[in-house]
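Dear colleague,

Thank you for sharing your sequence with our group. We've completed the structure prediction you requested, and as agreed, I am returning the results in plain text so they can be pasted directly into your records. Please verify that the sequence below matches your submission; if there's any discrepancy, let me know and we will rerun it promptly.
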Amino acid sequence: NPYIAPGWTLKDEEGCGVRVWATMKGEDQPRVLELMLSQAQVRNSTLWASDPKQQLAYLATKRWSRLHCPDVIMGVYTPDELQETAPRVERDITPQTTTAAGMNSLINAKPAKKPDEQTRKSDSRDPEEMLMAFTSAAMNYSTVSELDKAYKYIAQKLSDDDELLAKATDVYSVRREELNETSM
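Please find the predicted C-alpha cells below.
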C-alpha cells in the first residue's frame, strides 16, 4: 500500500487508533466510536503516510456523525461515500431531429377556437399549477397522440413564460422518447 507511513509495517499500525465521543442533549452517557488505523481501508491520500492520526481523526469524526447524527451534516458527502457499487445506466434524452420538427409544428399550431368545459376550468389555474398537472398527466399517457394533444395545449398556455415552457418541453421530450421506445 503506497499510503502506509514510510518505514512502517502493518505491525506498526497495530494499536494505533482514535476514540470519538459526544454526549447528546438529554443523555447521560456519551456515544463512543473507536476506530483503529487497521480499520481504515480506503487511504487515497498521501496524508495517510505523513500524518495518519490526523487522517484517522477525520475518518472517525465522519463515521461518528454518519452513525449518530446524520441530519446535522445535512446531506454533505465526501467523494468516496458517493461512489456507487453498480454504475448507473445512462438514458439518452437527446430529442430526435424529427421530434424537434414535430415540436415546432405543435408550438406554432393555431389554438382551438372553442375550449370545452374542462379546458375552461383549467384556465383559472396559475401557470405553475398547469405545468405540475401536465407533468403528472404526461406520465399517464399511453400514446404519442394523447401526449401531443396535451403538449399542444400546455405550450399554448405557457407561451408567455419561457422558463415554464422549457420545462414542459423537457417533460414532453422525455415522455415522447419513452413512448417511442416502448412502441418499437
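Summary note from our side: The CA atoms of residues 1 and 9 lie 10 Å apart.

Kind regards,
the structure core
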